[in-house]
Every structure is written in C-alpha cells, then in structure tokens.
Specification:
It is a single chain. By secondary structure, this protein is α/β, with parallel strands linked by helices. The protein has 11 helices and 16 strands. The strands form 4 sheets. It has an 8-stranded parallel barrel with strand order 7-8-9-10-11-12-15-16, surrounded by 7 helices. A 4-stranded antiparallel beta sheet has the order 2-3-1-4. α3 links the parallel β7 and β8. The radius of gyration is 21 Å and the shape is elongated.
C-alpha cells in the first residue's frame, strides 16, 4: 500500500503516518521526488486496511499496490525516475550513452579510448576492473589499480565512470571510485550483493540475468530499492540465444513493459547481446528506436589486442558513426 500525503503535509503529519505503519510491524519507506510525499508500506504479509490511514491528518489517499515489486512499480511512483549524476541526468528525456572497453587494461589504453568516446559524445566511461569471466584462467581485471585508472580518466576527461562490482569486497571499492555501480548478468540474483548495493548511495546499473523473467529482474531491483537506494537503472543485455549467429538474443521487447510497469530508466547493451562487432550498430539503432533511455557500448581502439570481449568491441570511428546516427534517430535534449 502507498500512503499519499497532501502536498502541504507537515513533517509531524508524515512522521505520525510512519509511526503508525511501524506500530503495525511493517516498514515505512518514504518515496523520493514528486510534488508530494508518498510513503510505501513494506513487509506486510497480507493486505493492509486503508481505514487505518485515510482518516489521519495530512493523508489524502491510500492506494493498494498489487505488484510484488512494490517500490519498482509504477503503481507506487507515477513519474519516471531520473538518475541525478554529477552534472548529468539520466532517464527518459535525458538520453545517455555509456562507452568504453570491456576491461581496463592500462592507463594508456583507458585514456586513449576515453578521449575518443568523449569526442564522439559519450558522457559516461565504462571499464571493468573486476571481470566476471567464465574461465578462471581468463583475464580477471586489474582490481583496484584499474579503479585508480578510471579515477584519472574522470579527472582528465570529465567523463563519469561506471564499473562492475562482483562481490561485497569489490563493491566497497567500486562504490568509492565510480559514479555508477554495475551489477552483471551473472549476479542479478546475488541477493546479498543486491542488498549491499542498496545500502550504498551510488546509482546501480542492474543488468538483466541471462535467464531472468521481467518479474525476476524487477524483484532484483526491488532488493536494491528496499534497502533505501532508489537510484536503479535497468540494463537489457540479451538472454540465452538459440543458434550461434549472436552470442545472446537482444530482447528489445523488454523496453515497453519496463516503461509501463516501472518508473526506472532502461538502457540497452547491444555489445554483450551481439558478441560480434558487425551486429552492434544495427542492434543499437534498434534499441534507440524501441525507446531505450540510453546505450552502453564496448569500444576498443585495438580490439584484436583486447584482454576481453575484443570481438564485440567496435572501433572508435564506428562509435562516432553510431553517435551521429543516434542523434538523427533521437534528436532533442540529451
Ligand atoms: C560487461 O559489461 O563487461 C559484462 C561482463 O557484462 P554482462 O554481465 O552483461 O555479461
Ligand atoms: Mn565485456
């Protein structure tokens, strides 16, 4: 249930509603944003009687929330969530492109790619310092050294930084250095990691698990939000495919239901869906046309020498072409 307060409700009235919720043994979570305060009731085992709240002063409405992903649901928050980053907004009207290599490999590699993607119009630089690899013998990333390089990239280019946290240990470091914490497809249901990410105050980009239904994905986002972190970005990166023409199957059919069911932004990662360079541009254009709020693209200036995901990394000049195409597809405010 969602308790909607009058726009002139006083702090005392809001506190009284929260105390009433807690006195029932439930959790009260104020919802940020909007013209008026709304308070979500969480951890109630069954339906809550609206009569407990509608007569309280300052309350204008008690709305039942039917979805299990209460905080993620549009029933709880009608306005789109806009992620506020330093000097940059992300979500709906604010289309944002994230680009960079799969992994940070060296300062010169990261800086070279960062300069090129910045020149083409990217606003956020991606680079893994901790890499979740299928084989323990594959490149595992530079760890904290990689995060230090990312920090330098931000200082020198002004690009914001996103990097992946694989476990609670790396999460602490990533939250310290990066502007956005990425949680990868293999960790979408790592519930203890999700909870920890929910306790940070950094936005979290949550990739869809490669076998996850929409409801499972939204529930994973709910884990983060239920810990008090409302800044969640969903990222579609493809699900297990049939055939070998594409590494994964990019599921663009997620975009309209994400916008309908949730208030969260959704960005699309065509690189991990495709697994091969020649598919990245067409899939990226399709994602923009389908209404994505942003893109995340792997770019490498020497993909043949990349330590990971070289085959799907596009060249800087292809990235520039893509950016020009996107500006035509999606003119206006970026
Ligand atoms: C990545 O972004 O480099 C990555 C490992 O992605 P995913 O979790 O989608 O496989
Ligand atoms: Mn990668």
């Amino acid at each position: 249930m969602l308790i909607v307060m009058d726009k002139d409700a006083t702090d005392a009235q809001i506190r009284a509603v929260m105390a009433k919720i807690e006195s029932q043994g439930f959790e009260a979570q104020p919802m940020p944003g909007g013209a008026r305060v709304a308070i979500a009731i969480l951890r109630n085992p069954g339906p809550v009687d609206p009569g407990l709240f509608v007569e309280m002063s300052g309350v204008i409405q008690a709305i039942p929330v039917s979805r299990p992903y209460k905080l993620v649901s549009r029933e709880t928050r009608r306005e789109d969530t806009i992620i506020h980053l330093p000097g940059l907004d992300l979500g709906r009207r604010h289309f944002v492109v994230i680009a960079g290599p799969c992994a940070v490999e060296s300062e010169i590699q990261a800086m070279t790619i960062a300069q090129s993607v910045k020149a083409a119009g990217a606003r956020i630089f991606r680079g893994g310092a901790f890499k979740p690899r299928t084989s323990p013998y594959s490149y595992q990333g530079m760890g904290e050294e990689g995060l230090k390089i990312l920090k330098k990239v931000r200082e020198e280019t002004g690009l914001l930084i996103i990097s992946e946290a694989m476990d609670q240990e790396s999460l602490k470091l990533v939250a310290e250095y990066a502007d956005i914490i990425q949680i990868g497809t293999r960790n979408m249901q790592n519930f203890s990691l999700l909870r920890c990410a929910g306790r940070t105050r950094k936005p979290v980009l949550l990739k869809r698990g490669m076998y996850a239904t929409l409801e499972e994905w939204f529930m994973a986002a709910e884990y983060i939000m239920s810990e008090g972190n409302a800044q969640v970005i969903l990222c579609e990166r493809g699900v297990r495919a049939v055939g070998d023409h594409s590494r994964n199957l990019l599921d663009l059919a997620t975009i309209p239901p994400v916008h309908r069911e949730t208030h969260l932004p959704i960005i699309v990662d065509p690189s991990h869906a495709a697994g091969r360079r020649d598919l990245v541009l067409p899939l990226a254009r399709a994602a923009v046309a389908a209404g994505a709020d942003g893109l995340m693209i792997e770019v490498h200036h020497e993909p043949d020498k990349a330590m990971s995901d070289g085959a799907q990394s596009i060249y800087p000049d292809q990235f520039q072409t893509l950016m020009e195409e996107i500006r035509t597809l999606r003119p206006g405010e970026w």
